[in-house]
Amino acid sequence: MTATRVPGVPVIEDGVLISTNPATGEEAGRVPVASEKDVAAAVERAREAGAWWLALGYEGRKDRLLRWRSLIVQRIEELGRLTSLETGKPETDGIMETVAAVEHLDWAPRNAKRVLGPRRVRTRILLAEHSGHLEYQPYGVIGVIGPWNYPIVTPIGPISGALATGNAVVFKPSEYTPIVGQWLVDTFAEVVPEQPVLQAVHGLGDVGAALCRSGADKIAFTGSTATAKKVMAACAENLVPVVIEAGGKDALIVDADADVSAAAEAAVWGGMTNAGQTCIGIERVYAVAPIYDRLVKEIVAKAGKLRTGEEIGPITMPRQIDIIREHIDDALAKGGTAVLGGVDAVQPPYVAPTVLVDVPADSTEIRDETFGPTLTITKVADADEAIRLANDTPYGLGGAVFGKRNAVRIARRLRSGMVSVNSTLTFVGMGNLPFGGVGDSGFGRIHGEDGLREFARPKAITVRRARSLLPSTTFERTPAQVKQIVKAVRMLYGRRS
Ligand code: NDP
């Protein structure tokens, strides 16, 4: 039976997932849908492949992962076109996303051995006859569940960390972007043809749920906070650990000594790139009174130049359009003013840039993730008020500060995992910085050293090198030895400083 097709809404026909462009309805491709059994079989295959991959060692894995990186770069325009076809975003956005992704594919394998390799730790006085050793061992099989908004860089973050560490990966791309996901897996297979070290399983949310219960050793989830809770509940059944990269409501603070034009430019780009469908996108701007009017004027002027169908692509997931409309309606109903766009900006599958001022703090436009090309700008008395309002959200993913003298101090006080000073979203492009949030934005980290350790278990080993002078771990210790141990502990740790 043929289901009715709505552009951008994936349909399943005869066990095949058909992905279409949200703006044109053009077919982007087809992939087979995995059953629960298929998912378990993929994890089983991955376990064997993982043992082979681990045996390649850090150098062998580095060689393959850097070859994969190079292959992706050689075919960057193709991936940009495919991403555009499947999500509707401009091709250049797909290309720029790939640029960010390859940074992580380069950094992780080059640094895995240094961060995770075996090392000796300093001997402690009370156990002087033992040497201490630390190494990080991969989990085995990592399940990666990805979203649709950045179908390249969001999965490549955990995939690069997991593979560099020595795990195999079973990847469930979003049902909205399975073709880009499959492209990544297929290109990896060109440089690693021997074993299914990276596999994809496709389908709707139930396939993600099956992956949580499949026997995978850890799940790296990127998506909404609501789904993250379901993932955690499913993983809790078998104590499967998780990394959660969830939604955000990021704020940009503009202080009195900021370069206002640069702040306006960054607010517009940070808020409206990818049509605002960015987890670390700027959704709220807090500007101190002396520069507020100028900032609003410049943001409106710059955002007003953006055209839907050009710089502003369609809303990839059609049902998100209702949420964006509801947020704008709520902001206006509660007393906010649209200084650009507004209700009429919603022209499915597009939403034109919308800038709202005087929006009360209890509006959904301020409280919930909008995920569209909208910005609120709120006037504040000073940086302290800006920080208080910026932090008044259950989310805590990223953020940005524009200013000079106090900008870094303000950045430190933002309750979030990442902040860019005098730019937006920059932290995602640095392979050596961790990426992740606090609160409803999740926990755990991808990227950087912390992102490598996320996919390995620390293993502690002690090796006894000589007879114990102060034996504490034996029934054979004598009362005199206990006295000596206490004396030593008093000397070492009993003093006040
Ligand atoms: P969803 O939470 O809807 O989906 C994310 C992934 O989870 C998809 O692959 C989805 O499959 C899958 N899934 C759905 N239900 C289940 C389930 N019960 N068990 C396991 N997996 C399931 O998020 P979106 O795809 O809509 O992505 C947008 C969200 O992602 C936004 O909130 C955004 O902020 C956030 N995000 C966070 C990032 C971060 O790094 N912190 C980065 C990018 C986005 P299917 O698509 O088939 O339903």
Automatic annotation (TrEMBL):
Keywords: Oxidoreductase. InterPro entries: Ald_DH/histidinol_DH, Ald_DH_C, Ald_DH_CS_GLU, Ald_DH_N, Aldehyde_DH_dom, Aldehyde_DH_NAD(P). This is Aldehyde dehydrogenase. The keyword Oxidoreductase applies. Residues 19-461 form the Aldehyde dehydrogenase domain. CDD domains: ALDH_DDALDH. It comes from Paractinoplanes globisporus. SUPFAM superfamilies: ALDH-like. PROSITE patterns: ALDEHYDE_DEHYDR_GLU. Belongs to the aldehyde dehydrogenase family. The active site is at E245. Pfam families: Aldedh. The keyword ATP-binding does not apply.
